[in-house]
Amino acid sequence: MNYRHIYHAGNFADVWKHLVLVALLDALKQKDKAFCYLDTHAGIGRYNLDAEQARKTAEADQGIGRLSQHTHLPELLQRYLQLVEQCRAEQPQSYPGSPWLAAMLRRPQDSLILNELHPEDQQQLTELFKGQRQVSLRREDAYQSLQACLPPTEKRGLVLIDPPFEQDNEFKKLAEAIQKAHKRWPTGCYAIWYPIKDRREVMQLHRRLTLSGIRKILLAELHVKAAEQGVFSGSGMLIINPPWQLQERLQPAGEWLRQTLGQDDQAKLVLEWLVPE
Ligand SMILES: C[S@@+](CC[C@H](N)C(=O)[O-])C[C@H]1O[C@@H](n2cnc3c(N)ncnc32)[C@H](O)[C@@H]1O
Fold it and tell me: N or C, which terminus of the chain has less Cβ within 10 Å?
């Protein structure tokens, strides 16, 4: 396990992923009934962008760093940036990871399950959430935690699957894990992140899921530059069972991000059904 998210925190892919996450959590709060949020690859929860590792890659400069000084933003972006500001008020120069955002947005009745396998990262995550009610911390393989935690007792909620893609077979393992999880809990909402770097792998993931029989899969990709084999040119989220009107809420924010984070004239936003209802 060499991957450490601190090197990538706040980059263009994090911005897109976390914006989508905020929209999904907001949608869950439309009903009073409690929900469960499961983060299978949680990371450390909150990242210091001044840390040596983050400065070494400076990836945040092309992501969150390009968003701070704008006005007249689409509503969802404003909301996301307010949360980033809130995180910075807690710890200067920080950037919120997915667990931090979920913890900030959940209500007292909602529960969080945060799983992280890396021992040091899991330790930091535990420290950040120490003493918080309704938070359960796990340290096991992500795909095991999907099996162990689904379906949640609340019977409604969101699963974020955000692997590091450091193993060659991650795309294949991911597709298999999604199918198994969906069998255990077909009505849950799933948000699955992937990098757009190897187009063939991405196409195969799409094909596997299209053939899996799972319905209602929304594709949400933000490409910041022209696709080139082996170059990290964008990122995608597959959203199974998306909430009503998610696409409409993501569209203006995604379009704004395309214009602001785009690095050439091939930057594009893709928001469409991979598999409709
Ligand atoms: C992309 S990062 C997660 C970022 C986090 N979801 C966020 O948005 O703030 C992936 C994380 O998965 C962890 N990880 C790697 N292999 C894992 C596995 N098999 N099971 C669980 N976690 C794993 C890594 O240590 C890393 O912290």
Answer: C
